[in-house]
Write a structure and sequence with these properties.
CATH class of the largest domain: Alpha Beta
Radius of gyration: 29 Å
Largest sheet: 6 strands, mixed
Number of domains: 3
Oligomer: single chain
Number of helices: 17
Helix content: 40-55%
Length: about 450
């Protein structure tokens, strides 16, 4: 005869149940609550002064959001539902149930303050001896915006629509002059039809103006690159060398037919990714090689990484002196430029940026070959090129893939964060800070347990 453990869903408790007793002592939710209780939330609580009605404490709402992002629950509606369904969320919310509007409003309101909280978490990690800035690995990943790429209009298509609408307006005005309103088909209002098309023409003109404003930065960079190429060729001539290739052509400036703007989130851009072209943003992260903690996170609208070194160096330089200063920056060929190398040197950071596509498996003879002597040159590019070819340099650069890329893999695959919930550059940048802070707390929980 089979034996089963007896159960009774209607069994009464002798004492009121405690959610605290149902959650394991080493649970991530407990760790997040303990960390947030140690943070200075005065910048958040100050916003609630003078309110007439009682509000949920920022510590409770922040813990719910961070735990949600750390476990793959990004929707405020799903977090609200989880405060009923999940023991961990119930524990964090202390058996309260903030509605999704409250959670969404809190997330949107305090995006700026997340910068300070991100740094506070890093400072706490240092206190726990989990992080010490030294070698930093930099990379970027494309993350979808809260907008469809099918809601994007190109400059060329806008011009076609404008021409079509102007023709329709002229046709309607001619129709109005030829016939009386009574002779038109029922339901047709000529003034309303004209006004609707004129409104669309106005909206399209605004979209074109925004595209024109957007491409100014690109044109300035293109002109700068063109002048640098001309200067390089002139230096070669002065050195008695014949420049290779044809004379560089002046770049085309102004809006091009393929330049686009998205009608849902105009700050987002069409970007190439491993999954094809996506409407999104370029999310950047600087990761500590030893701990795999994100020490700085920035967001960009640029499709490539060439211009991301200086913003990241600025973010790293803004960290408290108590955290220390990074000594070396590892990055792939997408970040290579003379300006980026010089920017690292000026910050007293040794750059180790790939000069080209690196071979995965070097021949045995090349791996066993002794290092060439260090060049007698003050040129940081020459020094870096030599360092990359040494055995120690190859070992150091090899750490890049095993640090920052796994972080992006965990964020996208384990946490499931592949699309922003908010719109607009500032809002999305704040959400990226929230994502990386949630990752850091999850990582700190693992490191502390080890």
């Amino acid at each position: 005869m089979s034996r089963f453990i007896q159960f009774d869903r209607n069994q009464q408790y002798l004492l009121p149940p405690s959610v605290d007793e149902w959650l394991p002592e080493d649970h991530l939710a407990r760790f997040i609550v303990e960390v947030i209780d140690q943070l200075d939330l005065s910048k958040l609580t100050g916003h609630y002064s003078g309110r007439g009605s009682a509000a949920y404490h920022p510590a409770l709402l922040l813990a719910l959001l961070i735990y949600g992002y750390a476990t793959g629950t990004f929707s405020s509606r799903k977090i609200e539902r989880a405060t009923y369904d999940s023991v961990a969320f119930r524990f964090i919310a202390a058996n309260h149930h903030p509605d999704h509007d409250t959670l969404a409003h809190f997330r949107k309101t305090f995006l700026v303050e997340l910068e300070d909280l991100f740094v506070q978490v890093l400072t706490l990690a240092q206190t726990m001896k989990l992080v010490k800035l030294g070698q930093i690995s930099l990379d970027g990943t494309k993350i979808k915006a809260n907008a469809s790429k099918h809601k994007a209009l190109s400059h060329g298509h806008i011009e076609k629509l404008e021409a079509q609408l102007r023709e329709e307006v002229q046709a309607l005005l001619k129709k109005a002059a030829d016939v009386d309103q009574e002779e038109l088909a029922d339901g047709i209002d000529l003034p309303a039809e004209v006004a609707r098309r004129e409104d669309r023409l106005k909206a399209l003109a605004e979209a074109k103006a925004k595209i024109a404003e957007r491409v100014k930065e690109r044109d300035e960079q293109a002109q700068k690159d063109h002048q640098e190429r001309l200067a390089d060729r002139e230096r070669q001539r002065q050195a008695g060398k014949k420049p290779r290739g044809q004379e560089p052509k002046a770049p085309e400036t102004g809006p091009q037919a393929k330049d686009q703007i998205n009608l849902t989130d105009e700050a987002s851009r069409i970007m190439p990714s491993k999954d094809g072209f996506v409407q999104g943003y370029n999310a950047q992260a600087a990761v500590d090689v030893d701990s795999l903690l994100v020490v700085a996170a920035t967001l960009s609208q640029h499709t490539n990484d060439k211009r991301q070194v200086e913003p990241m160096l600025k973010a790293l330089n803004a960290l408290p002196d108590s955290l220390g200063k990074p000594e070396m920056l590892l990055a792939d060929n997408g970040y290579f430029s003379k300006d980026n190398i010089q920017a690292c040197v000026e910050q007293k950071i040794t750059p180790l940026i790939a000069l080209g596509r690196e071979a995965h498996h070097l021949p045995l003879a090349e791996r066993l070959t002794p290092d060439a002597p260090e060049p007698e040159s003050d040129d940081p590019l020459v020094k870096m090129a030599w360092k990359l070819k040494t055995q120690s340099g190859r070992t150091l650069y090899g750490k890049r893939k095993s640090t920052v890329e796994p972080v992006f893999g965990i964020i996208k695959q384990v946490l499931g964060f592949r699309q922003f919930s908010l719109r607009g550059l500032d809002a999305v940048a704040g959400e990226w800070k929230l994502v990386t802070m949630a990752f850091n707390l999850k990582r700190m929980h693992v490191l502390a347990a080890g």
